[in-house]
UniProtKB/TrEMBL annotation:
Provenance organism: Saliphagus infecundisoli
Phylogenetic classification of the source organism: Archaea, Methanobacteriati, Methanobacteriota, Stenosarchaea group, Halobacteria
Family: Belongs to the glycosyl hydrolase 10 (cellulase F) family.
Top EC class for this record: hydrolase
Family annotation (SUPFAM superfamilies): (Trans)glycosidases
Protein name per the record: endo-1,4-beta-xylanase
Amino acid sequence: MVDQPLREIADERDVRIGAALAPGSLRSDPSYWKRAKDEFNAITPENALKMGPLRPSPKTYDFTDADAIVNFGAAHDKYVRGHTLVWHNQKPDWFEAWEHTDDQIRTFLRDHIHTVAGRYRAKIDAWDVVNEAIADDGSLRETVWSEALGEEYLDLAFEWASEATDADLYYNDYGADAINEKSDAIYDLLEGMLDRGIPVDGVGLQLHALGDHPDPESIGENIERFRELGLDVQITEMDVAFHRGEVPDDPLEVQADYYRDVFEACLDAGCETIVTWGVADASTWLRGFADFPERYTGDPLLFDERYDPKPAYDAVRAVLED
Ligand code: GLA
């Protein structure tokens, strides 16, 4: 008997298992395409919806790659996460040289959000409206957006997004998966936004578990407290690696155990969408980002280089079947 794909098990259970997708692999690699289609009922464009790739010049948009991924999602009945409307990284190259006024930034950001969220109104289910606005010490990160518009830029971004789309609107960040100083700060930020009537629907916990693996029990408690605020919680960018100097004897088993523990804790706490940051180890961002290849092992996902399922895949399947 051929095993039932993960997405069917997830569909039956009414939960979502996702992957971040890259347009080049989707177009050129049939194994990638097939795993993406069969095994996941949720997707996130890994880079294609970021401002840099979308905005070749100040007045133009290039939606080619974003459309390819979003349309793949629509064609195969997937939940689509849009990532991301406002971020301090991966802005267009021309942006750095732009000598702008604060008002120009305001107009630019509003138009960007209206245009991009509006284009995918019928196809994108959830948006990471703002990504990584809080610094590691819990303060508001200083970015071009905060410098031009003050802390209010978050309120404005969510309001502008809600004018253009009916998608659920998320705040997304890293290092805030468990209860800690940063997730406390995000809790306060979102509580304040809700008090002011800002249309924020959820919080995305990225969960890049690279070397440090946040305690699953604390992740569960963190999810619960955000849910008690009235927010949905999703795990948006999960991957699991090890510090090069601290690789256990049986890394694939330890990795599988961590995936299992996190999935159990999240589902128990009422988080029903977990997206992994890629389809297979061959194309993980960890193999190409900054000095990460020297720092971390580069096989953090559910499928290996040959697109074969790993112990982590079996562990996730077992949790979903349970
Ligand atoms: C952050 C961003 C993602 C991605 C990863 C690394 O987590 O939210 O879009 O850039 O870094 O790939």
